[in-house]
Amino acid sequence: MQAILPDVDSVAEYSEKLFARVCLPVSRENRVIDCRAATKNYASKTVLRGIHLVVEPGICALLGANGAGKSTLLRLLSGLEEPDSGSVFIGGLGFRDHGVSIRRNLGVLPEGLGLFESLTVIENLMAVGPIYGLTKSETATRAADLIGFLDLTQGRNTAARNCSFGMRKKTALAMALLHKPNVLLLDEPFEGIDPASSTVIQMLLSQLSRSGTTILLTSHILSTVQKIANRVVILYEGRVEADFDPSTTEAGVEEVYFSIAGRPQPEVPDWLRS
Ligand SMILES: Nc1ncnc2c1ncn2[C@@H]1O[C@H](COP(=O)(O)OP(=O)(O)OP(=O)(O)O)[C@@H](O)[C@H]1O
Fold first, then answer.
1. Is residue 252 in a domain?
2. CB within 6 Å of ligand 1 — which residues?
3. Which residues does the UniProt record annotate as the domain ABC transporter (predicted)?
């Protein structure tokens, strides 16, 4: 087996090559995620309690325990669901009036991945290109680049439903990147991904953020968040409980996280101990 650990230069070169041709107008405004007092309830359960969050270019990691509401917030920001109150703007636009424009500016890796299950990896990518306004040949070039870059070559012609979990996630990530959006919403991009591909993805996201992409991602892998995020937001009981820059905070991400969520002190049941 050959290791596929890349070097920083090859990632930078790749990003330039892959993304040079699709040019959405560049301004700070169309790169901002703006969530104002968003509330979300499911039946009698309040999941989000008036979330205020403005995210600018860089990598912002959204943390919180299982069930804290991270995926729910990403669904609101992706326009997949509407808040019960409050509002969401991507690049200064709201989904109700500007859904199509927003989607051309936005790449989403949703919790459920959103794959066409009967299509192969390459067919999934070819299917979404035109939705983002890419020509067939642009889509084919970019799809081939992404498949190589994300180590999907072996599964290229495998139906999504028969791909491993990691391959499925990388395919969905490739679909989110295909049009080089200015804003990326990524639900757990590193979970279930092998270490080599995770390294590739971390380098790519860092490169994209340096060139002005706004990335909001969720993760439970605190060591990765510590490494790549320039902002960390922690959700707790439906509210933003912490919002900090890990590079200028003395306490590490893990320390801040456990100070909010509580450090676990598990009592292993007797019957499992022996
Ligand atoms: N469609 C739905 N109907 C009812 N309840 C829902 C729905 N979607 C989410 N929930 C509830 O909202 C809460 C938050 O779920 P969410 O998936 O946003 O959490 P999360 O922080 O992403 O969790 P995880 O880390 O496990 O992915 C949970 O209690 C969940 O059961």
1. yes
2. 42, 47, 64, 66-72
3. 33-262
Supply the pTM of this predicted model.
Answer: 0.90
Instruction: Give how far Cα 90 sits from Cα of 48, 177, 240, Å.
Output: 19, 17, 19
Q: 116 Cβ partners below 8 Å, 6+ apart?
A: 123, 124, 127, 160
Can you give 1-13 as a three-state secondary structure string?
CCCCCCCHHHHHH
Identify which of 66, 187, 190, 222 to mutate to test ligand 1's pocket (most ligand atoms within 8 A of the CB): 66
71 C-alpha to center of ligand 1: Å? 7
CATH code for the domain in which residue 77 is found: 3.40.50.300
CA distance 184 to 109: 8
ipTM of this predicted structure = 0.98
Residue 133 maps to a domain: no
| Number of C-beta neighbours around residue 78 at 10 A | 22
Residues of the domain holding 252? 8-18+28-113+182-261
Long-range contacts of 64-70 (CB under 8 A, 24+ apart): 64/234, 64/235, 64/236, 64/261, 65/236, 65/261, 68/235, 68/236, 68/237, 69/40, 69/235, 69/238, 70/187, 70/218, 70/235
The segments of the chain whose pLDDT lies below 70 read: 1-26
Counted domains in the chain: 1
